[in-house]
Amino acid sequence: MKGKFASHTLLATLVSSAFLTACSHSPSSTAQLSPAIPERLIQQCEAFADQLAYQNTSIFAVESIAKGDMSVAGKAIDEHCLVKGEMNRRVSPVDGKEYAIGFEIRLPKSWNGRLLYQANGGIDGTVRAAEGGFAGGPITNALYQGFAVISSDAGHDRPLPTFGYDPQARLDYGYQAVGSLTPMVKSLVAQVYGKAPDRSYFSGCSNGGRHAMVAATRYADEYDGFLVGAPGYRLPLAAVANIAGAKLYLSVPGTTEKDLSAAFTMQERKLVSTAVLQQCDALDGLKDGLIQDYNACQGVFDLDKNVPSCGAGRDGSCLTAEQKNVVAKVFDGPRLLNGERVYASFPYDAGISNQDQMNWEYSAPIKRDSGAVSMIFQTPPVDLKDLSIRNFNGPEFVFNADIDELVKKVYATDGDYQEASMSFMTPVNPEDMSLMRDRGGKIMVYHGVSDPIFSVQDTQDWYQALDQKNHGNAGQFAQFYPVPGMAHCRGGQSVDQFDMLTPLVNWVEKGEQPEQVIASARGDSNPGGANKELPSDWSETRTRPLCPFPTVATYDGHGDPEKAASFVCQ
Fold first, then answer.
1. Overall pTM surpassing 0.70 (yes/no)
2. pLDDT tens across 29-43, in order?
3. How many CB atoms lie within 10 A of CB 489?
């Protein structure tokens, strides 16, 4: 049946019943999982090229990748095997196009016994290099650490929303590609190394974070640890809210459909950013350009009182009454006619003047959200004469949209599209992660406080609901790390470079619960790439602790203000 894990009939002919017993991930009352055991691949990659097999799967190529052909932060990645293939090729009965789930798998010669599923961002449609990287400038990745890593296109081979006309492609994108690929990659790993992965992990940011959050509920019996970045786990509603925000910005006098930035210019954004910092920067004990206690900031900063109002024309030193009204509505979260929020509110943070903010609020509604909502998320999709993107008018869709109707459509179904996007794109009961919890699984979630498209408030609300569901004990298996100043997955006025995979592994396999994660800034000499939005008065190697919610990084009052050691999570 589509959407369920495929039968392991072929797998059973390839490995012993003892192996099947060993890889079974049935729920257990045991809270501690055993560590992975490394294995070395002795044979050459090309030697098993004709031996790999799994049902409904085609292997296109198996090749050796020499040490140093790939690197991360200037460090050579060891020799490994690259496997490319696809699953479930078919012809759509709706749009007549061919579809398949494309993938690549990288298998280290020196394997650490672990698998990582690399979930990708955007609307997928491309098989990205299976490296298993994470936020900001990379300092390491899963492949470098010795993981076997899989990456996929989630069931369509172009990053265009037109795949949304095929009902099965929608479901594959939402969650079923993961359901098909997971038993397949575990089988291939077993065929190559002689055993299945001892431990399996799932990681991604943005839509990849959504994939990870979905997997933590739908496939919690198949994965042991989940690293979730900026999870747009209610992505259809976030996209509709961004369209609603564009319509609000258009209402500011002097703004046109071709230039939404005229509603709230970069100069005006910097004005507000400065005002937010003036009110909130010192709440953590140090004025350093980072607002650690963003929740307290929302009660201290007042847009109307703390930002000058224009008496005459706009000159960048003030906001008009119309601007304040619109900005307040956007950050409070656009609402339906009945007063309910479409999605979530967004906190005021220093990053309101990040370039990322401009792109997501002014460009993305027309260039991204319009296509995703109209073709993938709503039921039925918009009527296009030949199902081609060239026939679609993004600005027309956005600026003529009835937001209440769009929300109804992302919850709708019909004869062809029998699962609504708010089902296939979202976790099942996200506040209930008891299956993962009971079998010893762990989840770590990070989210930029200045993320302009998926709100850190939405993620905080999820974590608090999870904690309530677990009677205040969610921290025993789940952690949420807000990243002050960080934009969407990376960048902004932030320390956005950190390794959260290593502490996740140590938590899952050794029971070492993280107390903090050290993050660093990315100056011009950073081997993982520079963050061009770093303030000039910051050290290029500034470090800070990322603290698990609800604790906040607070200055100790006497240490070096550029060093993480001078802060405590409290």
1. yes
2. 447 999 999 999 988
3. 25
Paired with 110 in beta bridges are 40
- Give the side-chain half-sphere CA count within 13 A for 405: 9
In the structure, what pLDDT confidence band is assigned to residue 135 with cuts at 50, 70 and 90? confident
206/360 Cα distance (integer angstroms): 13
Token duo for residue 390? 């060239």
Q: Cα(274)–Cα(268) distance, rounded to whole angstroms?
A: 10
Burial of 475 (0-12, 13-18, 19+ CB in 10 A): middle
Contact 241, 333 (CB under 8 A): yes
How far is Cα 433 from Cα 475, in angstroms, rounded to an integer?
12
Instruction: Provide CB contacts within 8 A for 474, sequence distance 6+.
Output: 463, 466, 467
Contacts of 64 by beta carbon, 8 Å cutoff, 6+ apart: 44, 45, 46, 79, 80, 81, 82
DSSP class of residue 367? I
The pLDDT value given to residue 59: 97
Q: In the structure encoding, which two tokens stand for residue 453, read together? A: 């498209």
E-assigned strands of 163-220? 199-205
CA angle (180, 440, 422) in 5-degree steps: 45
For tokens 């990456």, name the residue: 151
In the chain, the amino acid numbered 228 is V
Q: How many CB atoms lie within 10 A of CB 332?
A: 13
Question: Residues 32, 511: contact at Cβ < 8 Å?
Answer: yes
CB 100 within 8 A of CB 155: yes
Q: Which of 462, 367, 468 lies closest to 160, judged by CA? A: 367
Identify whether the C-beta of residue 275 lies closer than 8 Å to the C-beta of residue 301.
yes
- pLDDT, tens digit, 9 for 90 and up, residues 97-111: 999 999 999 999 999
Q: How many other C-beta atoms can be found within 10 angstroms of the C-beta atom of residue 538? A: 18
Q: How far apart are CA 80 and CA 143, in angstroms?
A: 9
Cβ neighbors of 169 (< 8 A, separation 6 or more) are 92, 99, 155, 156, 163
Q: How many angstroms separate the CA atoms of 112 and 108, rounded?
A: 8
In this predicted structure, what is the pLDDT of residue 431? 97
* Contact call for residues 265 and 276 (beta carbons, < 8 A): no
| 116 vs 80: CA distance, rounded Å | 15
Active site residues: 206, 451, 488
Closest C-alpha to 106, from 76, 148, 50, 146: 148
Q: Which residues contact 431 (CB under 8 A, 6 or more apart)?
A: 462, 465, 466, 468, 469
Per-residue pLDDT tens for 508-552? 999 999 999 999 999 999 988 999 999 999 999 999 999 999 999
Answer positive or negative: Cα dihedral of 47, 140, 482, 324.
negative
d(Cα 451, Cα 294) in Å, to the nearest integer?
13
Please give the single-letter amino acid code of residue 446. Y
Q: Are 380 and 414 in contact (CB under 8 A)?
A: yes
Distance CA 547, CA 518 (A): 9
User: Quick one: pLDDT band at residue 10, thresholds 50, 70, 90?
Assistant: very low
pLDDT, tens only, 375-420:
999 999 999 988 888 889 999 999 999 999 999 999 999 999 999 9
Residue entry with tokens 């990645």: 77
